Task: structure prediction
Amino acid sequence: MKINGARILIESLRREGVEVVFGYPGGVVLPIYDALYDVEGIRHILVRHEQGAVHAADGYARATGRVGVCLATSGPGACNLVSGIATAHMDSIPLVAITGQVKTTALGKDSFQEADVTGIMMPIVKHNFLVKDVCDLARTVKEAFHIASTGRPGPVVIDLPTDVCSATMEFSYPEKVNMPGYKPYYEGHPMQVKNAARLIKKAKQPIILAGGGVVTAGASAELTKLARLTGIPVATSLMGKGVFPEDDPLSLGMLGMHGTAYSNYAVHEADLLIVIGARFDDRVTGKLDTFAPHAAVIHIDIDPAEIGKSVAVDVPIVGDARNILQMLLKEAKPAEITAWRERIDDWREQYPLNYSCDDTDGIKPQAVIETIHRLTGGKAIITTEVGQNQMWAAQFYKASRPRQFISSGGLGTMGYGLPAAIGAQIACPNDIVFDIAGDGSIQMNIQEMATAVSNKLPIKIAILNNGYLGMVRQWQQLFYDRRYSHTDIGYTNPDFIKLAEAYGAVGIRVQAPEEVEPALQRALECTDVPCIIDFIIAREENVMPMIPAGGSIDKMMID
Amino acid sequence: MRHTLSVLVSNHPGVLTRVSGLFARRGFNIESLSVNSTENPDISRMTIVVDGDVAALEQIRKQIYKLVEVIKVYDHTEESVVERELALIKVSAETRSRNEIMQITDIFRGKIVDVSDKTFVVEITGSEGKINAIEQLFRPFGIKEIVRTGKIVLARGSKSTE
Result:
């Protein structure tokens, strides 16, 4: 039986095991929405802005490891996906985004709602397709999912002209893909693994640095085993948060610009860095010339282009982190580094991650996060917006498992947290999901409150409200002589309680430190409705420690 | 240092944009580029001349490899190759200079492929240096127009890039 392109698309998504699509309808995707109307097995989540759809698909992907799927119409719809696609690209998140396109005969003619989506997306995708013939559609979907989810994952966009959706043909779904130019490499080179093992044996002051690649590879257990067997301390990047339990005595927490002082001191003094699935982002390294100046570097990454990109590497191992860690585990022995661990523990005692408990200026945001951690038993899924809220969450919500901490790392996309929380809550209906937000960021995708309410999602949105674009204000305070140019939004912020109620959600305002816990408890009792908790926090609280951008460790500010 | 890369790609629309866009985005300057299909109609071959140190070249090579439609990237820097560019030069050819232009063309083993009462179009192939040299010699006669292709290369000997 012949079916049309829209049905072929939906059937192909089913073959890929897609259960949820985040989307927003429009002119040229009418055939697809018609096919979705009575489809079984695929749930469509109607967002209120396409950016919400792509971040929600991203949050879904990060929470589960599965490919997130979003759908938007041509032109403005597709353009609204751009920040979200770039976010997923920077953080290597598997997404398939389907965009409608004007009919093939109207392409290139400045037609209504036409945009060159193939061209616009090209620099921010792992790969993208423009399907001009319905005969290519099923194969394209197969390839898109394969590319998105294998190797170093990433977003793939399928641009789909409306006449291709209406054209009909016999459906058959390919079993295999054939792409001569795409062959991800999973096995570590045995010789290089031996070289790495030799360096590890010799090292007196080794550190493991684990990143998002460990999450992707599902290598958290192997990493934990290696660290505990060898006794080598583990620091993580923001993306790696949770791959090693942060309450473990070997955990150094997050390193980098707002990382723990002791992790940064340890990296600075280390004689060996074992870097796994991390890419030496400038927020991690600061000034490259002074980053880990005494350390030999073992770099394990599935993407050969990451090796040697920023930091010279002594032992490169290209492949899947899990495979390589399993190989390394066979060679690993306990390292004799007691003196090194004691030195690190001294730093840990001398420069703990800390904040002043003096809350006469208002609620301490760090205390809010610690209370959330305590009340959720450290088990909640945390999404964040971007800025101070994100860094406080990273510092003070100790993660115990991968895929628990969901944040826009590479791109730093404000407005990410709420839609990502929606995606995560849909993926994990039995988990408690918190969006740690700022009063600035939350307004960037606030319209998604309607999505959360209409789907009865009990997301808790903790707004750390200081009436500022706080991180920018912090930089203005420290580096621009307190000239708070256009960062004070306190006077014009909406009443977030009324806003929550207007959307049909619950709103709770918290103005005093002693109200924090009861308010959170009330929020935790909301089981079928989102809840905004508006914490009026100390206005000029800063995120510390801090190494200024492009600076070295001697520039670190502790408080 | 200049490097010459052969990049074999799937013959899809847009693949040239992907490759050239990648160079621009990552801050690598393309000095010359030529592209056409190969003996296999599914595959195109790009010859790209790029300037950069060894580390930069290594990085761009790896980045190109990541493009899904790129099948093979081959660096010719360390080997013996046959390299050619093609130029068409429209040179003023008044009666008194015609003989001399024909002689120069002969010496360079070029061809005169178009003649008018005032001009020749000379076709010349060879290395970049050779084409620069003939251009230099023609200049006093008056070059009206010149068009040059990018460099193409093949490795010498029996081994092939694929």
Notes: Chain B touches chain A at residues 9-10, 13-14, 17-18, 21, 25, 55, 58-59, 62-63, 65-71 (CB under 8 Å).
